[in-house]
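Figure 2 data, in text form.
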Amino acid sequence: MSAPRRALVVVDVQQEYFDGILQIQAPSRDRTLDNVVTALDHAREHDLPVVVVQHQMPEGAPVFAVGSDSWSLHPEVERRLQPSWKRATKDKGSVFAGTDVAAWLAEQDVDTITIVGYMTNNCDLATAVGAEELGLAAEVLSDASGAIHLANEAGKVSAGQLHETLLVLLHSNFAAVATTQAWAAAVTAGEALPKSDLGTSATQGRAAFGG
């Protein structure tokens, strides 16, 4: 099997998720940021293409208003930016919706995207699902992404439960889920990350819970 042609996709590592109303609750914001930075540094060491995406809304919007502190990249990401990296802005969940990111990845002969950043429960999920239609394999780094507590008319779920549930869902079909350390080792070795499938996950689920 040939080595994956990876690109690291850094999704919305912006100040809103550290200082705003959408503050990441689980895993720890600081820990996930450390792992995003580790992934960025490893990608640079191994000459991986990198895409840095920012969510952007019009001036005056309550979050991600262009030019605002909420919209700004975290300084740890900002200071690592390289001229060769792809910059993109979006106003939808998936990094592919309404952007030229897919075209740029195709130009780099990428067949696998590694997703880090925020949020597991929105843009990471949408991007991993969107990759399927484009014929791209997806990877999600479990400790370099994070979720928020949610409550609405449909119910409520804690950030920790939400993050774990979505990672299990993604690993069952849409993406290989791994830690940053395991991903870095796979990059160094030129290997793909293992991923489950829906049938296997369903069989193991029945063994775990019955039915």
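Caption note: Strands lie at 6-11, 50-55, 86-90, 112-118, 137-146, 150-152, 155-157, 176-178.
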